[in-house]
Design goal:
This protein is an alpha+beta fold. It has eight helices and four strands. About 65% of the residues lie in helices and about 10% in strands. It has a four-stranded mixed beta sheet with strand order 1-2-4-3, covered by helices on one side. Helix 6 packs antiparallel against helix 7 and helix 7 runs antiparallel to helix 8.
């Protein structure tokens, strides 16, 4: 299963009949959760609920914008509903005579009455046909979006594997330098022991110094955990699916190991400086990876 980017776009244009066509489009970008925004013409409340459900059933994370825009052609015939307009005028005349009022009927108001203009009697049929057409199109449209998100995810996976290679290389390099770091700590320990056993020998101070230096000198655990995290990261990429949050958590753990490694080897001198450089390089790669992970579903 591939990993999915949260970036994608898909669009379909459909002609319902000679006088009605529409464009249905969906766009997604990264977001911590699934955030759905719909832009639909008025009067499509029931369809809106169905579209929201379709988006939630197909997508896990991302800010998603779905829009439906209509294009209504000019009516083939011009005219008006004579019966409706005549009834409006007759009612106007009756009301004016009954109440002894002055004034003339407003033709614009009459023609704005529902169904006054010829062709509006198709409105209900048009809406039913439109809704059914959109229902048929939303599945293929979301499949197209997911294909694009998978394609973007494939590119992300290539980038992420490159970063993991660099992290693994840095970890291996630190592992090779570890014996010298231990030697440097032993030398420092010996110097402090000599200082502690001088004229003002303090046994408690000696024990405290030894405990601190022994703990600080061991970076084997950090290196082991870093290697384990890199392997787990690769496994998640291979498994694919909805792994964005898991990868982000792993990167937090990897960053913690890099920080601990730097704190334990700081100020050692010698090749310890090289370890510092490698640790900083690890942190830089981890940070770049976290930026990429923000777009993984």
């Amino acid at each position: 299963m591939p990993i999915y980017s949260m970036t994608g776009f898909a669009r379909v244009q459909v002609r319902v009949h000679d006088q009605l066509s529409y464009t249905l489009s969906v766009k997604s970008v990264n977001h911590r959760f699934l955030d759905v925004q719909l832009r639909l013409p008025n009067g499509l409340d029931a369809l809106e609920m169905e579209l929201r459900k379709a988006l939630k059933d197909n997508l896990v994370r991302g800010h998603v914008d779905l829009s439906l825009s209509l294009d209504r052609g000019s009516q083939q015939k011009s005219g008006y509903n004579r019966e409706l307009v005549s009834g409006y005028l007759a009612a106007f005349e009756a009301a004016r005579a009954e109440h002894k009022l002055k004034g003339e009927p407003d033709l614009n108001a009459a023609l704005r009455l529902p169904g006054a203009l010829q062709g509006e009697n198709r409105c209900d049929d048009d809406q039913a046909i439109l809704e059914e057409s959109v229902r048929e199109q939303i599945g293929p449209l979301l499949n197209e979006l997911k294909i694009m998100r998978a394609r973007e995810g494939e590119s992300l996976e290539t980038i992420l594997h490159g970063t993991l290679d660099k992290l693994a290389e840095a970890t291996d390099s630190v592992t090779l330098l570890r014996p010298e770091i231990e030697q440097r700590y032993q030398e420092r320990l010996a110097q402090r022991l000599l200082a502690a056993t001088g004229p003002e020998f303090n046994r408690q101070r000696l024990l405290e110094e030894v405990a601190v230096l022994v703990e600080r000198s061991d970076i084997a655990e950090e290196l082991t955990r870093m290697t384990t995290h890199i392997g787990h990261f690769r496994e998640l990429l291979a498994a694919g699916g909805e792994v964005g949050k898991k990868l982000d958590f792993l990167l937090q753990e990897m960053n913690r190991e890099a920080n601990t490694l730097l704190s334990k080897t700081g100020g050692v001198g010698g090749k310890g400086t090289r370890i510092t450089e490698l640790g900083l390089a690890m942190k830089a790669e981890i940070e770049k990876t976290r930026e990429q992970i923000q777009n993984v579903e």
